[in-house]
Amino acid sequence: MSEGRTGLSLSPRALYVEVAELLRQRIFQRELEPGSWIDELKIAEEYGISRTPLREALKVLAAEGLVTMKVRRGAYVTEVSTQDLSDVYHLLSLLESDAAGVVATKGTDAELTELMSLHAELEKAAKPGPANTDAFFAVNERFHMRLLEIANNRWRDQMVADLRKVMKLNRHNSLLKTGRIQESLQEHRAIMAALTARDAEATVARMREHFANGLEAAA
Fold first, then answer.
1. How many Cβ atoms are within 10 Å of 113's Cβ, its own excluded?
2. CB 3.0–4.6 Å: which of 61, 141, 157, 175 could bond 66 by disulfide?
3. Is 69 buried (19+), middle (13-18) or exposed (0-12) by CB count in 10 A?
């Protein structure tokens, strides 16, 4: 175990994995802004580690698309272009709408009840307020990831997980747009209605509409 000057304790698992997670969260929380240079010396000093595990961590984040490595310039937090967003949302729409169709057809009553419970949490989190924006985002992601788990295709899950990491670089901005949370909630209501009706075709269509509207808000 290593402890940095900030008093942060790193767990016994592979050090670079722990560092990658710490940096990943800093990126998602906007402590490290898109386009900003990652000061390796400063971060290594903060965590009380050498630059070797830090560089390994940056390789992991680069593979996920969260960090861009520039020759002789170092690592930068990835800036997501309009085309990047369009490509990511397009693929997520295909993958998650397919998963939703599977759940509408093959999901058990207990699994659909679980999704209904998550949707109920989403309704509660949709109340106005800065803190609720974060809560809405978190529950929204739990809903989508649980739906994917129920659809049970690990290869699809892996692809979606990677794509969603890139989407997170811009996602909070889209939810902050006026009225987007309520629009997203309405879309989730439509998805749930189609799911509980066991209408696979409608579920696929509603999920695709959800991502199309999400892209329009994010662009």
1. 12
2. 61
3. middle
> Strand pairing partners for 37?
76
Question: In the listed set 58, 77, 96, which residue is the last one of a domain according to the structure?
Answer: 77
The radius of gyration computed from the CA coordinates of the chain, to the nearest angstrom, equals: 19
Which residues constitute the domain of residue 186?
Answer: 82-218
Per the structure block, which two tokens stand in for 213?
A: 């509207």
How far is Cα of residue 15 from the mean position of the Cα atoms in its chain? 23
